[in-house]
Design brief:
It contains eleven helices and 14 strands. With 413 residues, the protein is of the alpha/beta class. Strands 3, 7, 8, 9, 10, 11, 12, 13 and 14 form a nine-stranded mixed sheet that branches. Strand 1 and strand 2 form a beta hairpin. Helix 8 runs parallel beside helix 9. It is globular and about 75 Å long. The two termini are 37 Å apart.
């Protein structure tokens, strides 16, 4: 590797031109070859994003009944959803992605996810990354098995993970490069306003029963919020906030577009566990969705001609409850929405079997059910975009359920 190439890699955001290629190994980047490839990028939203406020069923009154304070208002209203097909709309914070929908390279799969019923972040992420829901003994991740199934000569950067550590989804016997990106500082939750808290503390500083009750309540609340923050940190599993994603996405796009040896890429973003103060068109969720959308738009633009040969999947471990909770947030749910974008995507469409929001159609009377197994959706991409055969698909996703034929149209080829 020459000095010019080394400096170029450093400018793209790497702390070093050396990339980790496994749990304990290192490999120098190889110069791009002449191979023209189909690519797949997976973006994991750790913490369970609220898909019901990402792709909004604005035509259903039950949506507004279930979410009196956090629902996204209908299209045409102030800060309303961006209409997609007359029934569903996009969260207004994702306006940067609307051109991709309109040009037909962005699609969504509603009521999708893992069939396993767990509401544990740790287990659900593990199952989605191993590709074997309900089986904890799987030794490797499905993207590592996918790497083994891909044809062609092996290079140190055929699969690249962007983040501080190698994730479960890429763990296994195949060598994988790991490129750390800058970790954005997670924004604190807006639970307490100091001026108001100080005023109440002074007001109830005495020894009367009401003051003692107030102080005991405050202490209990603080302990509860410490536990909640620890739970949210565990949900993120080390993934950075989306705040710095637009800049990272631009560098990532330049790196991938300039190196045809990269076939697979993965990154994760945290901060989606919105139990409290989730907000509607503005607030905690919107503040995360906006840079996510901007980053994905920057990624699509930055890939240039390589976007035509790239599919980007955005997934999360599970969805959230249909009804908002008493803290203006949502709790752990089941079915969610998958995002699919790329030049080879037949976009501008909502895919999947939407069950509706009637009580009898909800999973355990509280969640969107999973009508599309995430493995079926990903398998369509692997089969039609990356050209995997049925035996190769079975190697990537053992005991793969029968695919829904309607999903096959999501990839053009």
């Amino acid at each position: 590797m020459n000095r010019r190439r080394l400096l170029k890699l450093a400018a793209l955001g790497s702390a070093s031109a050396l990339l980790a290629s496994g749990p304990g190994a290192w490999a120098a980047r190889t110069a791009p070859g002449s191979k023209k490839c189909k690519r797949m990028i997976v973006v994991f939203l750790r913490g369970a994003v609220d898909g019901l406020n990402v792709v909004v069923p604005h035509a259903e009154s039950r949506y507004y009944d279930a979410r009196p304070t956090i629902a996204i208002t209908p299209p045409g209203s102030e800060n309303g959803a961006l209409d997609l097909d007359g029934h569903f709309g996009l969260h207004p914070a994702l306006a940067s992605l609307l051109p991709l929908w309109q040009q037909g390279s962005l699609a969504f799969i509603v009521a999708s996810g893992s069939p396993d019923p767990t509401r544990s972040h740790f287990d659900a992420q593990d199952y989605m990354e191993s590709g074997t829901p309900g089986v904890k003994s799987t030794p490797d991740g499905w993207m590592n098995r996918l790497l083994a199934a891909l044809p062609g000569p092996r290079t140190p950067t055929e699969a690249v993970s962007f983040g501080p550590t190698l994730p479960r989804i890429l763990s296994g016997h195949m060598s994988v490069a790991n490129l750390p990106l800058g970790r954005g500082a997670a924004n604190p939750m807006p639970l307490d306003r100091p001026l108001i808290a100080d005023a109440f503390d002074r007001l109830y500083s005495g020894n009367d029963a009401l003051s003692r009750t107030y102080r005991e309540g405050q202490m209990a609340r603080k302990r509860l919020m410490v536990d909640l923050r620890e739970d949210m940190a565990e949900a993120d599993n080390g993934a950075p906030s989306p705040a710095g994603f637009p800049g990272d996405a631009e560098r990532l796009a330049r790196l991938i577009a300039g190196d045809p040896t990269i076939d697979l890429a993965f990154l994760a973003l945290g901060g989606w566990d919105t139990h409290v103060y989730q907000g509607a068109a503005a607030g905690q969720l919107a503040n995360h969705l906006r840079p996510l959308g901007q980053g994905l738009a920057a990624l699509a633009h930055g890939l240039g001609p390589a976007y035509a040969d790239t599919v980007v999947l955005v997934i999360s471990e599970f969805g959230r409850t249909v009804r908002e909770n008493g803290n203006g947030g949502t709790d752990h749910g089941h079915g969610n929405v998958m995002w699919v974008l790329g030049g080879n995507v037949r976009g501008g469409k909502i895919y999947g079997e939407w069950p509706g929001l009637a009580n009898g159609d909800l999973y355990q009377n509280r969640d969107i059910p999973v009508t599309t197994d995430f493995r079926n959706a990903i398998s369509v991409v692997l089969e039609r975009h990356l050209r995997l055969t049925d035996p190769q698909l079975q190697a990537v996703f053992p005991h793969l359920p029968v695919s829904a034929t309607g999903l096959r149209r999501i990839i053009k080829a």
